[in-house]
Amino acid sequence: MNPAVNTIDHKFSVAPMLDWTDRHCRYFYRVMSKKAVLYTEMVTTGAIIYGKGDYLQFDESEHPVVLQLGGSDAADMAKAAVKAQTYGYDEININVGCPSDRVQNGRFGACLMAEPDTVSDCLKAMQQACDLPVTVKSRIGIDEFDSYEFLTQFVNTVKNSGCEHFIVHARKAWLKGLSPKQNREVPPLDYQRVYQLKQDFPELTFSINGGIQTLEQTQQHLTKIDGVMVGRGVYQNPFIMQQVDEKVYAQPASKMTRFDVIEAMCEYMERETALGATSWHIARHMLGLFNGQPKARLWRRFLSENARQYPQGSELLKRAADIMR
């Protein structure tokens, strides 16, 4: 198959975050923004091919939605890509950025930056097996391999296998001695290095990730780069999603209030808890909805302390909303 043409506008995307960006979280974000690109948590090839659960399920409203895939065996990556296509994902992203020990032991994530040929083999196998665009998310370096030359060699090798879009976390990863949390905070950010990649590879699409908290910062980055990926900034203050379509994509302003969001999520909660989810599976992603507003702490506390009392239906959200009113 020929490399797929990417038609998604990647100006703004929400980062894949393990244990956070599950399908309930993504639905919540989609209620507030129609244009933002949403990423799944990283799913391993083993979970997709051999796992007993359904790790690929998503709601049709989530489009455009990208599957982030973890793995390094080209044949398994191709099998997972075929399955992702049958589910209807818009795109697949290869994880070459996660620094956790568990991921390294599986020989994928950030350690693959030292193996660009392996990444290329996976990319080629996936493109031959499916019609979806395949992208790569990486760091700017790993351990002592943190020169700009090392980074450009990685990009050049993977680009020659057909990758047209790179998402670059503007920190290197220390694979020895730092936890994943420390790897998000300790290595210094180097945005200029990502900007330089765009200058040196103008034919490619680059998105920048790492330490970006606000839409104002997003707009500044977009003067120098094609796209911005925000992670914890959105998770901790999710209502900024309500302004993404207007401020980033120049679409008509959303008139949606936080209470409109709650109303939409009440309907979703009724539906999903009837199918076996608990209210907490959904409400936990909404703890930051009133971030920066009066009584925000009360909102968080009510949801956290009463989730067990109202495990089904939307009563938990409705009662919390009454308190905020």
UniProtKB/TrEMBL annotation:
<feature type="binding site">
    <location>
        <begin position="16"/>
        <end position="18"/>
    </location>
    <ligand>
        <name>FMN</name>
    </ligand>
</feature>
<protein>
    <recommendedName>
        <fullName>tRNA-dihydrouridine(20/20a) synthase</fullName>
        <ecNumber>1.3.1.91</ecNumber>
    </recommendedName>
</protein>
<feature type="binding site">
    <location>
        <begin position="231"/>
        <end position="232"/>
    </location>
    <ligand>
        <name>FMN</name>
    </ligand>
</feature>
<keyword id="KW-0288">FMN</keyword>
<feature type="binding site">
    <location>
        <begin position="209"/>
        <end position="211"/>
    </location>
    <ligand>
        <name>FMN</name>
    </ligand>
</feature>
<feature type="active site" description="Proton donor">
    <location>
        <position position="98"/>
    </location>
</feature>
<dbReference type="InterPro" id="IPR004653">
    <property type="entry name" value="DusA"/>
</dbReference>
<feature type="site" description="Interacts with tRNA">
    <location>
        <position position="184"/>
    </location>
</feature>
<feature type="site" description="Interacts with tRNA; defines subfamily-specific binding signature">
    <location>
        <position position="181"/>
    </location>
</feature>
<dbReference type="GO" id="GO:0102264">
    <property type="term" value="F:tRNA-dihydrouridine20 synthase activity"/>
</dbReference>
<feature type="site" description="Interacts with tRNA; defines subfamily-specific binding signature">
    <location>
        <position position="300"/>
    </location>
</feature>
<feature type="site" description="Interacts with tRNA">
    <location>
        <position position="95"/>
    </location>
</feature>
<feature type="binding site">
    <location>
        <position position="169"/>
    </location>
    <ligand>
        <name>FMN</name>
    </ligand>
</feature>
<keyword id="KW-0285">Flavoprotein</keyword>
<comment type="function">
    <text>Catalyzes the synthesis of 5,6-dihydrouridine (D), a modified base found in the D-loop of most tRNAs, via the reduction of the C5-C6 double bond in target uridines. Specifically modifies U20 and U20a in tRNAs.</text>
</comment>
<feature type="domain" description="DUS-like FMN-binding">
    <location>
        <begin position="14"/>
        <end position="316"/>
    </location>
</feature>
<keyword id="KW-0521">NADP</keyword>
<keyword id="KW-0694">RNA-binding</keyword>
<comment type="similarity">
    <text>Belongs to the dus family.</text>
</comment>
<dbReference type="InterPro" id="IPR035587">
    <property type="entry name" value="DUS-like_FMN-bd"/>
</dbReference>
<feature type="binding site">
    <location>
        <position position="137"/>
    </location>
    <ligand>
        <name>FMN</name>
    </ligand>
</feature>
<dbReference type="InterPro" id="IPR018517">
    <property type="entry name" value="tRNA_hU_synthase_CS"/>
</dbReference>
<feature type="site" description="Interacts with tRNA; defines subfamily-specific binding signature">
    <location>
        <position position="297"/>
    </location>
</feature>
<comment type="similarity">
    <text>Belongs to the Dus family. DusA subfamily.</text>
</comment>
<keyword id="KW-0820">tRNA-binding</keyword>
<keyword id="KW-0819">tRNA processing</keyword>
<dbReference type="InterPro" id="IPR001269">
    <property type="entry name" value="DUS_fam"/>
</dbReference>
<feature type="binding site">
    <location>
        <position position="68"/>
    </location>
    <ligand>
        <name>FMN</name>
    </ligand>
</feature>
<dbReference type="Pfam" id="PF01207">
    <property type="entry name" value="Dus"/>
</dbReference>
<keyword id="KW-0560">Oxidoreductase</keyword>
<dbReference type="InterPro" id="IPR013785">
    <property type="entry name" value="Aldolase_TIM"/>
</dbReference>
